[in-house]
Amino acid sequence: MNTRIPPGPGAVPMPSRRLFVQGLAAGGVVAGIAAVGVPQRALAAATSTPRLAGAPAVLSAPRVELSIGESLANFTGRTRPAITVNGSLPAPILRWREGQSVDLFVRNTLQRHPTSIHWHGILLPANMDGVPGLSFNGIGPGETYHYHFNLKQSGTYWYHSHSMFQEQAGLYGALIIDPAEPAPYHHDREHVILLSDWTDMDPGALFRRMKKLAEHDNYYKRTLPDFLRDVKRDGWSAALADRGMWGRMRMTPTDISDINAHTYTYLMNGTAPAGNWTGLFRSGEKVLLRFINGASMTYFDVRIPGLKMTVVAADGQYIHPVSIDEFRIAPAETYDVLVEPTGQDAFTLFCQDMGRTGFAAGTLAVRHGLQAPIPARDPRPLLTMSDMGHDMAGHDMGGHAGHDMAAMKSMEGGCGASMGHGAHGGGSDTASKAPKHPASERNNPLVDMQSSATEPRLDDPGIGLRDNGRQVLTYGAMRSLFEDPDGREPGREIELHLTGHMEKFSWSFDGIPFASAEPLRLNYGERMRIVLVNDTMMQHPIHLHGVWSDLENAQGQFQVRKHTIDMPPGTRRSYRVRADALGRWAYHCHLLYHMEAGMMREVRIEE
Amino acid sequence: MSRSLLSPSLLALGLAAALPVFAQSHAGHDMAAMDAPAKATKTPVEPVDHSKMDHGATQPATMDHSTMDHSTMDHAAMGHGSPAPTEPREPIPIPTDADRTAAFPPIAHGAMEHAPEINSLLLIDRLEHWDGKSSNGQAWEATGWIGGNINRLWLRTDGERSRGRTESSSLEALYGRSVSPWWDVLVGVRQDFRPADSRTWAALGIQGLAPYKFESSATLYMGSGGQVLAKAEVEYDVLLTNRLILQPLLEATVAAKDEPEYGIGRGLNKVEAGLRLRYEFSRRFAPYIGISHERTFGDTADYAGDHARDTRWVAGVRMWF
């Protein structure tokens, strides 16, 4: 099933081909419609077999050729340029076996732009990691880069471009490594479920739009009628106190995600909901679903009405199985989930975005053409002061449906006009939780908020998922199936604060954007601890390249091995890092536009 | 993780090979039956028994302590004398020269592309037709910036036409610097093109988002002839819905000096209050209607004569690029 591309090194550079990707607004179509002015021959060269929508090729040879180029895609009724691998969006599924050594020849057929591929979560030498400027020089137009590495792990991973906004334009695909030893569970069949977000806009223009008006997509701000309703319900003083608090912060509690369905179409395996991506099963089979969030900016809340899910791996690594109804998947995370569909011919895979503005959806069915009802989206959540770590009075983090007036009222002093002083206010009962903020955050125009009471909140399902009547996966419920593979206590600790300015759309660690930040230096061989504190009102998935992020529980003990650690607002979470990979590694928020806006550091592991 | 959470679905998995593993791991974390890398541990909470771990044979050979920089480690932070192993269970590989070469390849300057640091906005806040007591015409007010997160070049322009003639028009060019998350300090020049001979001012001001989200600005203008004007403006958005937005606006001007030739009296000389209702068809395009009341005071009112107070209906469009 391998799709062969004209050979890489030494070949005559080919002109950029514009290929038509099997996108669609509705119905299933087949690829193979050439764009205007493109010879059919060129198309055939790249896509040897037309592929059904949502069924990217599976490449499993130890030697693989990938051709990055521009294609045309249509997910919304409008034909737009996309960046694809072998003419496919998502990119082909790479499938290998643990212990294999693989060679990838990645050829850039883009006319003007350099490109790159990063193998997300894969342990490999730094020069194979695919981050231009840290691992290598990128792949220039017409060039081919030879990636070579040994697969030292197994599980569900993915790969994507690390060049500017190419990931948003479509350059992402699944990477599956079958284990050398049998998995600790049995399954009869499996499907990759790659979720993503698509925009008809040029991703660079979308970034510029965020810089002009970051609140563009927030059409859910509280209105005057909402205020009057709250007055009626809670009384004048409570309603005014609440509006006053948000007003003093110049923020809005409906700001759940920067970019939502007003801009995005959500895709499942490269298929819009109307296209109804379908994965087959036979009743009674155990089906392994490999969920990958390849979205640039979207958190998905995933459930399959009528089915219990058993999560057996997180970020490619086995965990003790957890039986749940629903899970939140941050950008770049992967979850392996077992289901046993029976009693119905079709089940809906329902993946609503965290802000409840839209969804990706598909179907598990006994045959193609079936569909189960698509549930309504949940009510839109409102952020509370507790969510943002401004809860100076209340401690119950699990149960705030929307308003905790007691906690909010108590914030009138500490959560005042300048959030910068929040850390020093409040009662003594919260003093132990009050984080020390780095000096670089003080008087920093790029830091619009600081949390004053932070906790790991590993058992909190998260905003919009609390008390919804469903069993929701939490970080606290996940434990690696293995002991801490390193075992040592961390020898030292680095604390970093996630910072930003919503309106300027500037994002950073410790208030220092990437462009002006020094690398973090780790000593080769050391075991250290990274403590993250979220000083923003947004949620950030933080990814460290090259080495694992071993999340700790609230007591500071090894809990679960991940490559991407999700950081809800107001949380403080710690993880252990074993610095066993020399080199210069990227460390960043996996919300693409946050990374590009500065929430990134270089981590340098040196002898 | 509770047992009750897991049991039903695990049993449902019904896999002979898997069940023992899962069952045991839940019954107290006895990992001995698993193929996990760590073979000889008890629960993660309890001290690790080193005697069962094969450190003696592997560690000294694979771990070169001389390459580690202990000086930067904060041993004080370790505290609590945990009996965790001091050597890693999985040995740290000793890097070869090939590893070092692969880890730090030569990188060309500029290999990493970055999102633009310089961005811009042009906001045409008001572009409107007005209809007053005894006259009608057009008016505009626009703001633009270009620059980074902290330092920006600001351009501001406003003006008014009446019966086909431009009565006033000005352009300001200001360097703005963020001094706090919400406030910028501005310094620059203002050029009046109307009325009278073009007059140049030095400008010094602040602008930003005041608490409760009042869009605010205050500017001091020092002009030729020793005149000093202070102008303050506050805007607020009242959301009737997320697209239908009522915007009250208040603008006041104070002068330091009496200048009859410019129609400027000393003291508070002009207050403008506006109320505009816009509908955002998109964020970028919002037509509006509104009412604006302008009143002059003191000597300024005398100079203005009939125009001392005026109430105008306005209709226009708000756009940004």
Percentage of residues in strands of chain A: 25-35%
Strand order of the largest sheet of chain A: 12-11-14-19-16-17
**How many distinct helices of chain B?**
6
Number of strands of chain B: 13
Number of strands of chain A: 32
> What oligomeric arrangement do these chains adopt?
heterodimer
Major sheet details of chain B: 12 strands, antiparallel, barrel
Approximate strand percentage of chain B: 35-45%
* Helical residue percent band of chain B: 10-25%
Overall morphology of chain B: elongated
Sheet with most strands: strand arrangement of chain B: 1-2-3-4-5-6-7-8-10-11-12-13
- Amount of helix of chain A: under 10%
Question: What is the tally of helical segments of chain A?
Answer: 7
Termini separation of chain B? 52 Å
**Which structural class matches the secondary elements of chain B?**
mainly beta
Sequence stretches where pLDDT stays below 50 over 5 or more residues of chain A: 1-52, 392-432
Question: Structural class, from helix and strand content of chain A?
Answer: mainly beta
Biggest interface reads: A-B, 99 and 84 residues
Radius of gyration of chain B: 36 Å
Radius of gyration of chain A: 24 Å
